[in-house]
Amino acid sequence: MTAAEAKELQLKEKQEIASPAEQTRPGLVFTPDVDIFETEKEITLLADIPGVKSDDLSIDLRDNVLTLLGEITPADTSNEEMLLVEYQTGKYYRQFTLSEVIDQNKIDAKLDDGVLRLTLPKVEKATPKKITVKAG
Amino acid sequence: MIFRRIPSTPSFGFRSPWSELERMQREMDSLFGRFSEAYPQISAGVFPAINLSEDADNYYVRAELPGVKADNLDIQATGNSLSIAGERKIAAESDEVRYHRRERDAGQFSRMVGLPGDIDTQKVDAKLDCGILTVKVPKAEAAKPRQISVS
């Protein structure tokens, strides 16, 4: 077992943000934690959005601005009495500006166990091409 | 220090230093009528954060565990406490990737949740859906409230 595997997970408070626009339905909005990495061909984004079902997630890419909005259906606790509340639930919202040109048709999104994996392929012309020089 | 425990107070065995504070905060909140709309958010500071609630028959323990597989979760019930342990793994990406942001953490976690009353350890039911763990813990027969009819 490596040191990284044995690491204890630390509690991070969910980051609440002021809602991006005035909402018709009141509720809390949180910033999801993300990993973003890039290869020559694509940009991949991973986001922790527990409680969001694939139908309730909207991913929007417009003018190089990527917007993630995940709605949640809160668990029905109307008949329960809360004894301890350590976390709150609400929407997830986050926006990124992308510096690369993305091939909109090939965007791929997968949602698994509350983790979104979004693959944003760069358009062909942005991919560096190796040009072989033939000896004449 | 004078430390007095009111017998009817639910006791959270393992977090006793905080439970008294939490109880006081809850009482203050209910005095000011804030309880129904916003619950106090005092955390034990241990991953995962949990929400604990009860109805007449069960306790419900909920936690947000995105990216944790059911296979990597170990939940055990004893007496009047529940232990939630596990590991969150993040698969390594290929060496070619350049990271721009790394906010998500991987690692092991383990937490003990003291429940206010005795539980039926045989019938504990745990579900993991979209990264949210819900553990339904039935109360022991003796701990359930009993309706008493007045004749």
Describe this structure in words.
The complex is a heterodimer of chains A (136) and B (151). With 136 residues, chain A is mostly beta strands. Chain A has one helix and ten strands, in the order H-E-E-E-E-E-E-E-E-E-E. Chain A is 3% helix and 40% strand. A five-stranded mixed beta sheet of chain A has the order 1-2-8-6-5, with no helix packed on it. Chain A has a four-stranded antiparallel beta sheet with strand order 3-4-10-9, with no helix packed on it. Chain A is elongated. The N and C termini of chain A lie far apart (55 Å). Chain B has two domains: 11-42, no CATH class; 50-89 and 106-140, Immunoglobulin-like, CATH 2.60.40.790. Chain B is 11% helix and 34% strand. A four-stranded antiparallel beta sheet of chain B has the order 1-2-8-7, with no helix packed on it. A three-stranded antiparallel beta sheet of chain B has the order 3-4-6, with no helix packed on it. At the A-B interface, helix 1, strand 3, strand 4 and strand 7 of A face strand 1, strand 2, strand 5 and strand 6 of B. Strand 3 of chain A pairs antiparallel with strand 5 of chain B, so a sheet runs across the interface.
